[in-house]
Amino acid sequence: MIIIKVMAGLGNQLQQYALYERFKSLEIPVRLDTSWYHENRKAYTKRNMELTLFPTLTYEIATKEQKAELLGSENGLFAKIKNKIIGNPFHYMENGRMYLPEIFSMQDAYLEGYWACEAYYHDIMPILQTKLHFGESELPQNVELLAKLQSENAVSVHLRRGDYLQPENVELFSGICTDAYYETAIRWVREHCDNPHFYIFSDDTAYARQQYRGEEYTIVDWNTGDNSCYDMQLMSRCKHNICANSTFSFWGARLNPNQGKIVIRPLQHRNNQTCIPAEMHELWQGFTFIDAQGKMV
To answer: What pTM value is reported for the model?
Structure first.
């Protein structure tokens, strides 16, 4: 059996779920381990289990017994003797490289990581788009905007600041989605799209209003708290998408069913990555890349 650990925020949870669906498509027994949300843990930003936001989504949860059987147990004399004599024959993997294709040849493994790379599940994206349906929003602004997005060349622009500006995250995530990045992305869309209208999604709407003024911009500022997930839904209904270095906007773009969509993302997701453009184009099919200096690569 394959067990995939579910952790962190909605974008990462969707990647872990998508990997689950990929194993299912290969007819390999697979379960999700959601215990991270119930255990005592230290985290910079508190997260909740949010796959429940998709009311029709189904998946199988690993039991404590299945997890113990796969990983082994430190409890009990028999388990200690067994592990000491024959060792644990199963694999515990935490993803470190951009893409680990060898996981799909495994039959028994506990997989911990974020699995952000598009190559893990690009070929089952139509299945994921079919299964991942948000519940209905109670906010009239969302209902009105969903209808409006169908009648124009809507482009989502995601600005993630919030937790990325916290001291513990600055070194890892700052300086990637620069002004130069967004300027090039918006210019590229204007050159390839007639009369685009840009919808700005951000956790810092005051900053967004300072940066984007004029009739071609709309700041989406009403989805907060438990309603924040509806920003992802609105992104997915835009014709085109400009992403931040954030899995939240990656999934807004991935769930966009428009066959002719333009999807732009920063070359790097984190500052500790070494990203080779040729490799990125191979692993992230359908994405256009711009670096922090505003250069298309």
So the answer is: 0.91
